[in-house]
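ingest -> validate -> predict -> emit
validate: passed (alphabet ok, no gaps, 478 aa)
predict: started
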Amino acid sequence: MPASSRSAALVVLCAGMLMIILDGSIVTVALPAIQRDLDLSSASLTWIVNSYMIAFGGLLLLAGRLGDLFGRKRMFVAGLAVFTVASLLCGVSTGQDMLIATRFAQGVGGAMVSAVSLGMIVTHFPEPRERAKAIGAFSFVGAAGASIGAVLGGILTQAVSWHWIFFINLPIGTAAALLAVRVLEPDRGLGLRVGADALGAVLVTAGLILGVYTIVETSRFGWTSTHTLGFAALTVVLLACFVLRQATATAPLLPLRTFRSRNVSGANLVQVLMVSALFGFQILIALYLQNVRGYGAAETGLAMLPAAVTIAVVSLGFSARLNGRFGERTVLLAGIALLVVALGLLTRLPTDAGYLVDLLPTMILAGGFGLAISALIALGMSSASPADAGVVSGLFNTAQQVGGALGVAVLSTFAATRTRSLVADGHDRASALTGGFHVAFGIGTGLLVAAFVLTVTVLRQPRIAARRAEEVAASPAA
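emit:
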């Protein structure tokens, strides 16, 4: 495939993912306006976010495997079409039921696009140096897209209306789908002759959807309620049955050999911890700016813009070269270290914080995510064979979505509990909210420290891992 064609393919893949990532965060800033316009209760409002996350997180593994079977290009284009049509329906929604249902449909399309994107980068860029650059660009989309979404969501909501946060997807999705048909390299897929593992698909999809649902509903029912514990137990049973099925199926949906790689297993665990901390940070810092400091939607988005710019500069300008020079594992450790400092600073955030002194340093240090995510993707995909690239890509994205849902649920729950305790002790609303955020940011910092330790103890630089595999294969015992 010529270099110009590969570049065009990368642009299309990044454009598709940017639309998906933007939509995941652009809604957050617009939620108050949606609530006022549609007269929603707090419970209904949360489902505008939750319905998307449940569909997205629950269908990623299935979509990744279907991409392997039927062709990743077909899955990518079909996902763009589903997402674009669903966005149009979201924008014209006039009531909560329609908006929640169409947000679920957006999650389905988002899962179809996201599940195969990383696998397509692996196959389109087989040369290590070019792949590193491609992953750097793709990482920027994932890392900066969320922050850009917050900015764009605030501006569109305040300047026009919340409907336009969905309408903006129409030209992007249409152009990306048309270009994808022309520039992406066609792939036939493995075909149904290898087996689709329908039972495994049902078990894992039901288990993941139920698991994400259980996590996001903890904010309403609590972690120790009968509802949460009952659904959590059912989730464990479904996923345990899925694992047993994968061990015995002729053509498993998720081959258990995938987890024999320390890098694949370790990178997914690191990502759950890292994304849990940072997705929770993104939501909570927006709430702090609006509920404590009194920022408007557009002001909140602009306040978070330095994080997006820093992540963009690091991802596109430095990450690939640093990965090539020092190795992905070293770069990942450096990125996580910066993020530990960033969230650690927020544990002492004052009620009357000044932006330049108290918030801007954290926004700049958040650029460490640009270093960490590109190195993490490279490590996580380093052991994926071409035949399993789609399912590993789906696994990686599933870990990201589960981590995001878990982070928001855990950090928000502890923040709310601490806030209620401080209010009961006589603190004013602003100081009580800030105290709750301190606890949440402290937990986020702890999650990042755990990710750092796990990186040190489990992950290996790909070249080292490959050399050790060669030594084992050449030994007499092998």
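Residues 464-478 have pLDDT under 50 and may be disordered.
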